[in-house]
Predict the 3D structure of the following.
Amino acid sequence: MSDVSTPSAATPAAQTGHWYSVAQQKRLKRRYAADRRLRYLGLGAIGLAIGLLGMLIVSLVYTGHLAFAQTRVELEFYVDPALVKADDIRAGNFRAIARQALFTQFPEVTSRREQTQLAKLLSPGAEWIVRDYVAAHPELIGKSFKMLVPVSDPYDQLQKGLMSRDMPESQRRLSDQAIGWFDKLKKAGLVHTTFAYELFANADSRFPELAGLAGAIAGSFLTLLVCLVLSFPFGIAAAVYLEEFAPKNRLTALIEVNINNLAAVPSIVFGLLGLAVFLGFFGLPRSAPLVGGMVLALMTLPTIIIATRATLKSVPPSIREAALGIGASKHQVILHHVLPLAMPGIMTATIIGLAQALGETAPLLLIGMNAFIPSLDSVGLLEPATALPTQIYSWADSPERGFVTRTSAAILVLLGFLVVMNTAAIYLRQKFERKWS
Amino acid sequence: MLTHVFAALLVLTVIGFFIGRRRALASVNGQAYRLHSRPAYHASFVAAWVGIPASLLILTWIALQGPLLDRIVMATLPPSFVMEKTAGELSLVLSQIKSVAGGTAFGNPDPLILESGDRLRNWREIAQLSMFVSAIVLAMLGAVIAQSRISPEFRARQAVERILDGLMIACAVVAILTTLGIVLSLLLEAIRFFRWVSPLEFLLGLNWEPQIAMRADQASAGGAFGAIPVFLGTFLIALIAMAVAIPIGLLSAIYLTEYASNRFRAVIKPMLEILAGIPTVVYGFFAVLVVAPALRTFGEAVGIPIAPNSALAAGAVMGIMIIPFISSLSDDAINAVPRSMRDGSLALGATKGETIIRVLLPAALPGIMGGILLAVSRAIGETMIVVMAAGIIASLTLNPLQPVTTVTVQIVTLLIGDTEFDNPKTLAAFALGLMLFLSTLVLNIIAMRIVQRYREQYE
């Protein structure tokens, strides 16, 4: 103690306890170094976490951006009246028309075997596109027209540089001859890369170049709609009751513990509930958005209830007292004053809850919403459907190379929806939130 | 049909509203001030009586119609036909009858089934029609009853508020019903499973090969339902996830609460939250696309073979997902330590680091532990990452470089594409679900208790 106040005449180094002694200085240095270490460790941990986030997004964008473009080849199609009858255009032999259009580019390919190989250059969707176009323009029968049609997945990969030409032929999905054909088309200026509208316009398909998200987006939309219609009113009503009216008794205590627990139950358990109760007991149809929405509503309900109660709590008592003071009943106070003031907060919570529900996969898998649905004809609450996350799961499981980029693109679309929803929630909060102070 | 019923009911409810309003005003010759309650309350009273009982009737009708008709249709099958069939075959017959009734029969079903299918379709139509009629009648009846009570003295506001209370309580009870539904459905199906396989074998057996049990005669004899390898795999992956998430999450929480400037915090915290908002299916794909191949290449370079669906890849990615969870809960816990403790330590000359390690962390430990327990429960219940990145075959190993399987993976693989609840294979999923539900429930309750008690201590 006296060390500090009265420095002694002896050399500081001799007195180990002295503040300025070498040992103490060393110790101090060590202590500061430890402090710095902790600081850098913390910074490093944050850097690592953010870096992993960056890596995730970069790898998805890197693999996924290619799926937004589609390689197409421009061919001249002759609609042979012998192959297409004007009274039933859709029954026409458009496969032959599409093949013929390709073969005229390669007069040297004559053997049947080679022609079969060559025909694989076109996507199976090419003939359907030509068919739909001719069906819309019946005057084309007997005439020729030029059109861009998609190439099949291996050639698409080749054009995008995902398939190396340097690889030995035996390990490649395309033979040297096939690459030669494609290069000839390229040299003739017939190969174009355009926006892959198929990704948004088509339903699912076995062929990666034709597979689209339209069915999954429609399914997700219907599922979320059901989820919103159920969880929003139920959530608000339950929250208002628990926060404003409920007497403090065992039943309400039980409900509260229940809600907190439900918020932490794994989502797959809700899937089991849906499977056993909605499908098994009530006999609702499998894969239906109605069931998916009901399961997701049960999952989002606790989130909405907890957040709504927090918002209700933040409305100051003075508002309630003023309304009560001029003769409003308790119900009128809540319905006319407290709820409207709490609405922005409730909406924000609902949007965040729905965004969570949009990304939820496991419960939808269990009720069969990973069905393969290659058409957009039957969209309805009770019709079999997929949702965006389950579509991602199915594509990720597909063995075709082309589905890797497709999956990443689908994830980017899903993340896009999530960003929009969360931005809307933040905007709502900042625009309408009142600071009571 | 259903939409028509509800549309009709909605129209009737609106009509009821206006009738109620007119009635109330007519009872006082248009002088609204003479009414006890405002006309809108009288109107809502009538509307509620029109809409609510009829809606409840429709909902119960829908819920009960399917199962009831199934029973009746099965009861009308000749006993000789039923006698020689097992429960599984009977449920197959029922689904055939249903698809005949739905108009989508495949192949050439038994004439008996065709006949029953037609009968079922007839009954369905009759049931729908009678539902429509009885709902409308009930709505009308409600209107008549409610109307008759309207008078200037009638306390319509109180009556409507009582109805509102009832509705709100019903909504709050949904939470309890959900839990009840979860517990009952898991328990009932699990009990059916335990009729095939003894609980002891399930909990202590070392061999998990449910696919073999597809054949009925092997179910009890095969010994294929020992869940220990599955539990072990779940434990291993959760352990790896925690090994990744706890240090990163805790250290970033320390930095954010104690070292970071406000501006840094305002930017970085939301970015960490993004990690929590990314759907798990995305993490699963990330594990398959990036992490597993990277680990494999690394392993090849070092000379250690790493399986493409190793526990390490799935666990590490799950850890990334849990980082923000741990970080924000530890953040809360550290922030909840009273200012005076921090200031006291700093005033004694401790560095920031010493204050954190010697004072703040010990004081916040219960809160952090609670957060970690919640994170563990989340890791155990996490599904998509492991379904996509972990293995399907159960092996009794603690080697993180080998593929293992988890409870959630097994539930998904056992249930995808198979909905008949009559073989141990599908029922096993519910037994696993029960174990999952119970373990996460216990973890959650303990965690919430710890966090609660800790909060009270400092408030």
DSSP finds 17 helices and three strands in chain A. The mean pLDDT of chain A is 88. Residues 67-201 of chain A form one domain. The two ends of chain A are 49 Å apart (CA to CA).
